């Protein structure tokens, strides 16, 4: 654990390797990095005058020797954790409406509050923007580690952030996360449960409104959806890949219901799209659940407030966020962390799913 200096401006100087009785100074750091003392001062005050490569070399030398000035002592100490980062590639308006991330962030905050730590949250427009942001956060010692979310197939963040040495936990299946310690929900069996439930009710034309095709978890769900239909001997389901907003969910639902052999059941990748789909069904005079069954992913209060109430795949998102954060603290502490699956989402049947009208009167 780092010990703050007794007087302002005095470097924090634990024993240097190989010289246990001597105090490390800024001069030692400068010598180890091959720069002047002034360059060390510029680097630690985040001022211009040194290149990024030189700044990184200075920080590496300081960490190796166990030295830091007052303002940086805590951020250089691996045992001192004040702030963790979370960057989300979603529009701000959508994030404010999406119950999943609100619950997930509340779970993160519940652990941070116990440790008197903070969350640095930023919305980004692209994964490339996130890479730049994470690099700046880490190089400027603004964070002790990060939570990485929404992994893509061949995600471009993996290589640069691993090379950076960023302590991070990936929220996603280990097949997607490139060796980062991961915490995830096993979506494939949950998708299979949803499809088998609808098939058991008598549905033979089942469609899926999914999230962006590039997202890894969307691809995993799509594959499980098709595989389960095939196992049940049903025709391949129709997919509409879209965003996660209500507007996009409504548009996808409308396009499905305008086809000649429209589905009798639709599975949605989130609750917002399912609620929007329910509105479109009412608009088009399609009765839910007599003519159309709807099933949402990520159960939330929204699903319990609609009429009819929405069947959903439910899991404890608050606890999910808390577990991710607990694992991140283990990573920051240097502990070995294995991939950790959390509870698989489970089906909560409600009033929006029933046997299709052609199968007779509902029990």
From TrEMBL:
<dbReference type="InterPro" id="IPR046335">
    <property type="entry name" value="LacI/GalR-like_sensor"/>
</dbReference>
<dbReference type="Pfam" id="PF00356">
    <property type="entry name" value="LacI"/>
</dbReference>
<dbReference type="Pfam" id="PF13377">
    <property type="entry name" value="Peripla_BP_3"/>
</dbReference>
<protein>
    <submittedName>
        <fullName>LacI family transcriptional regulator</fullName>
    </submittedName>
</protein>
<feature type="domain" description="HTH lacI-type">
    <location>
        <begin position="24"/>
        <end position="78"/>
    </location>
</feature>
<dbReference type="InterPro" id="IPR010982">
    <property type="entry name" value="Lambda_DNA-bd_dom_sf"/>
</dbReference>
<keyword id="KW-0238">DNA-binding</keyword>
<dbReference type="InterPro" id="IPR028082">
    <property type="entry name" value="Peripla_BP_I"/>
</dbReference>
<feature type="region of interest" description="Disordered">
    <location>
        <begin position="1"/>
        <end position="21"/>
    </location>
</feature>
<keyword id="KW-0805">Transcription regulation</keyword>
<keyword id="KW-0804">Transcription</keyword>
<dbReference type="InterPro" id="IPR000843">
    <property type="entry name" value="HTH_LacI"/>
</dbReference>
<feature type="region of interest" description="Disordered">
    <location>
        <begin position="343"/>
        <end position="363"/>
    </location>
</feature>
């Amino acid at each position: 654990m780092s010990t703050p200096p007794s007087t302002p401006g005095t470097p924090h100087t634990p024993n240097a390797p190989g010289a246990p009785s001597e105090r490390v100074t800024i001069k030692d750091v400068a010598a180890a990095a091959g720069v002047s003392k002034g360059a060390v001062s510029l680097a630690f005050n985040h001022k211009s005058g040194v290149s990024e490569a030189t700044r990184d070399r200075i920080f590496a030398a300081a960490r190796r020797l166990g030295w830091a000035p007052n303002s940086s002592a805590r951020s250089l100490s691996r045992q001192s954790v004040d702030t963790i980062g979370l960057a989300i590639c979603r529009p701000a308006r959508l994030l404010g409406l999406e119950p999943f991330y609100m619950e997930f962030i509340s779970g993160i905050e519940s652990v941070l509050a116990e440790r008197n730590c903070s969350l640095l949250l930023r919305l980004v427009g692209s994964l490339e923007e996130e890479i730049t942001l994470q690099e700046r956060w880490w190089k400027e010692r603004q964070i002790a580690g990060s939570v990485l979310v929404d992994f893509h197939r061949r995600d471009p963040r993996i290589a640069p952030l691993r090379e950076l040495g960023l302590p991070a936990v990936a929220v996603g299946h280990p097949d997607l996360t490139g060796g980062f310690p991961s915490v995830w929900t096993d979506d494939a069996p949950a998708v299979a449960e949803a499809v088998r439930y609808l098939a058991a009710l008598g549905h033979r034309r089942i469609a899926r409104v999914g999230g962006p095709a590039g997202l890894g978890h969307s691809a995993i769900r799509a594959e499980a959806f098709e595989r389960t239909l095939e196992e049940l001997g049903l025709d391949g389901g129709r997919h509409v890949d879209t965003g996660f907003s209500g507007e996009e969910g409504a548009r996808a639902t409308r396009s499905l219901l305008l086809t000649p052999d429209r589905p009798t059941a639709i599975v949605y990748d989130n609750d917002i799209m399912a609620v929007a789909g329910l509105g479109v069904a009412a608009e088009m005079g399609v009765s839910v659940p007599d003519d159309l069954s709807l099933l949402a992913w990520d159960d939330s209060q929204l699903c319990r407030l609609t009429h009819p109430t929405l069947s959903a795949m439910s899991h404890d998102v608050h606890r999910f966020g808390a577990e991710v954060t607990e694992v991140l603290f283990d990573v920051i502490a240097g502990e070995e962390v294995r991939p950790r699956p959390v509870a698989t989402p489970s089906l909560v049947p409600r009033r929006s799913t029933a046997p299709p009208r052609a199968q007779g009167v509902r029990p």
